[in-house]
Amino acid sequence: MRVAIALGSNLGNRQAALEFAAARLGTFVSELVLSDAVETEPEGERVRGQPLYLNAAAVGQTDLSARAVLDALLAIEREFGRERPYAGAPRTLDLDLILFGDERVDEAGLQVPHPRFRDRFFVLGPLAEIAADFRDPVTGLTVAELLRRLLRDVSR
Fold it and tell me: N or C: more exposed end of the chain, with fewer CB within 10 A?
């Protein structure tokens, strides 16, 4: 199954966090391609005064289920020292399952496609660099089309 994963960090050595995540992703995602990293402002209500994020995206193939991929992502975050003291807290490492082939999953604790990825440049920008053709099964639009739409809406 083709999979897209967003990577981010805004605490500690952000580049090391992304490199750590990429190495771990390679253990269950084959043909792994990693985007360039981009620095972005934190988004959300509780982010005032937080450091900038370093974000990237990864795509590849996996034999795991969507739930197993999510479990693996959470384990990688914990291994790198991620703590969750409150929603929107700064992160040593944040990994999100964005797309899982053309599947839609809506289970407790797991929604795929990621419900907010269409509105986030820090996901769409890096993802468009490496998988512009990846299609969102909800809208039918490619990542490149979603990014163009987001940029058009922001410029209005």
Answer: C
Enter the pTM of the model: 0.94
Catalytic residue among 14, 24, 91, 120, which? 91
What are the helix (H) ranges across the chain?
14-25, 66-79, 121-131, 143-155
d(CA 91, CA 31): 27
Length of the chain: 156
Residues 1-24: pLDDT tens digits?
999 999 999 999 999 999 999 999
How far apart are the C-alpha atoms of 26 and 47, rounded to whole Å? 31
Q: Which of 96, 118, 120, 136 is catalytic?
A: 96
- The conformation of residue 135, written as its DSSP 8-state character, comes to B
Q: Is the peptide bond before 126 cis (omega within 30 degrees of 0)?
A: no
